[in-house]
């Protein structure tokens, strides 16, 4: 196998991403016959990264790299997929031309390029890491990792190229080179019944996972969990069209779940079921937890869930809010919410200045920042203060560190809505998602952003005529 320097460096990152060093040592110990002995005995790197690099270089120099990769592929299906994507990228999709374009971009050395790449491309592809500098190997590695088994790779690469054209490039010659690479590798696909199905998600504007949590009737400390997913169509005509709704059946339905299992077990199972129909994950679904009063301010966004064999807070991976299940069972509370939510939509549409918007929302009791002392209220009192009045959007923070002044300016970040945004409520979800990711990257678990956001979408009454075209541009 003829490997370029970039190929080798990306390959090393893939191996390190999938296999811990002790796993590699064990694999080498168990396959000395195929590897000409134990290659780990022949390398002398003083750090983990150096040993991974030395191991690959040693196996290449001794002619055992293909055998080694075959062994790793047999051990990990994920590794096998990533190596296959890497090979296709270099052998079939002229990656050397793409690298040439990236080198031209790299020479610009603009920090803004890194910022936009992290904020736009990495947020869209949750399983890849942000970059600290414009490093071509890291970008190719991220590109390989962002490919899914169900992807049409050519279309995926086209999306990747269009991202750079849209957000990053301002040098005409580089634009031309990148466009040429895209045209060579990503021709317009032939329209077939299969490809029509694969683009179905373009008809949708919002995907929701509703998770309803109710106290177990006989076991204290456990909760019943039911779930429904819904895809709301993009319908600016307001002519009714059927939405897609699916009930999710969970394995422990009658047995119930502990509080600590709501995210790590129940929602993990829901997502695993939905992964069988990956079209649902475009756009990224919003997860909403309908909770009983005692769980409303438990900061579920920071609960850990495993995704791609990495444990991370669910609020870092998905737009997530909590909602009051109790509110929709009581006519007075629900009526108050409907009135306040209608007002919130009107204010968002009518206000073009962020200061006026925030003042109006708070004056009309449509948006509240909950002070930290009120997070200690008993559930019934919290309900009386914040749920009964019908406040649609409540936000709070829990801070265990010294934070900069920007972290307290949540309102401006949450309501930073583009004037040409069609579904402005959906933009609020994206803003909350971005805030959480930014804070987690900077403060880890030392700064938590809690969001209670109630509105007109509820599982029992999915309604196309008012959802998702909320606060739409008029």
What does this structure look like?
The protein contains 18 helices and 11 strands. By secondary structure, it is of the alpha/beta class. Helix 7 (111-124) packs antiparallel against helix 9 and helix 9 (153-167) runs antiparallel to helix 10 (172-185). Mean pLDDT is 80; it is low at 188-204, 237-241 and 463-474.
Q: What about the largest sheet?
A: 6 strands, mixed
Helical proportion?
40-55%
> Please, what is the average pLDDT?
80
- Total number of β-strand segments? 11
- Series of secondary-structure elements, N-terminal to C-terminal: HHHHHHHHHHHEEEEHEEEHEHHEHEHHE
Strand content: 5-15%
Q: How does the helix and strand content classify structurally?
A: alpha/beta
Form type: globular
The rounded Rg comes to 25 Å
Separation of the first and last Cα atoms: 59 Å
Individual helix count: 18
Unreliable runs, pLDDT <50, ≥5 residues? 188-204, 237-241, 463-474
